[in-house]
Amino acid sequence: MSRAPDSFPNEPRDASVHGESAPPGYRSLVVVVLSPLAFALVFACWTLFALLGVELRRDLALGSVGFAVLLAMPMLAGALASLPMALLARRLGGRRVMLVCLLLICPFLWWISQAHHYLEFLLAGLGLGLGAGALAAGLVYVAELGPSRHAGLALGLYGAGMVGAGLSYLLLPLISQAYGWRMAPLLYLMPVLLVAALLWLFADDGDAPAPVVGTEDEEAPAARATPMRRAMRLVACLADWQLWRLAITYSFFFGAFVALALWLPGHLTARYGLSLQAAALWALPFTLAVGAGQVIGGALADWRDFRSLRWWVSAFVLVCLFLLSYPPFSMRIEGIHGELTLHYAAPLWGFLGLLVAMGVAMGMGQGSLMRLIHRDHGGDMALVGGLALTLGGLFAALLPPVFVLGGEWLGIRTAGFMFLYAALVVCMLVMLADHARGTRSAR
Q1: N- or C-end of the chain: fewer Cβ atoms within 10 A?
Q2: Which fold has domain 17-208+240-442?
Q3: Which biological processes are named by the entry's GO terms (predicted)?
């Protein structure tokens, strides 16, 4: 296991002022309940543009590529914010960083309700991406203050906050129909402020890490280290392949789910002729399946060190993506007794069944991998967890434009699943190379 920079060591902590009055069970309960709520709300805010797509494309006269770039903005900003915010949470406390990030997205929610130009929506989307700081800080918060015996279950419950996308699927189309789409962003202001208030009132940050005293070059505690020294140590840590091996695999499952959560309502509308409200409801089981899978995967990883699980999960998801990649097609065969014509088009229920099965597997992959990251890099959780979210956010930001450009280039609506299939093959090749490298090192 690599050593973290001295700005985020993993030393034992003394009892804090808050911790002395709060029983450990109470603290764990607060962490496990409030952190997923914050995660769910941030994720729900990120799906705003996807579910307001019809209105936004009409009012702004957007093409497919312009709308895809708009969808990608929160993930791009979130990827850039994840690692710094995770490190800041390790230094200042997860609760403080989560609280600040939740409050930061509030003015951008209000701005979306008032914006009229494409550039305004792009900038507001970048502002919503700052909410990723709450995701990264919450991950560090749960890893440090959650129940140690059931860390995987706690991390799985936290990751299940992704079902916040389902909250948007249910509510936003109704609000948009009843009160107009500009009221929809304002719907989230009150819940975001409420969760921020609950974090401020009932949660605490634990204790600040003890200062590190080392050799003559490290006589000063970490708090007095120059920014250049911290940056150099961070770069040195990031050069260690051990930090990347699990983060890369996690980033595929995280990024693929985020992109699919944004893309599915529009895809179902175009492919099956559904209204946006009906398409959002049909996409809801996929998000619920991913959330349930995260809890199952985390709990299984608590019970046993399922390192082989990532291989089985990846193989199952690969098969599902292969089947989902098939577009409707017709085949004409010259038979003995005449011409035979075969036609294939996946029915809606079959498409949804594959999505749900794949969602459970993707969730299990995320939950078990995050538990493995916690087990292998507990002292570097801010670094490795933040790195995983950064890579996942960059992958998620890449996917909406790739889905659109791939579909226009190939002329096939399922091009997005084809790209995910190819990306997973590359990811599994990286896993195979890492396994071979570890086998050679063991000899």
Answers
A1: C
A2: Growth Hormone; Chain: A; (1.20.1250)
A3: nitrate assimilation
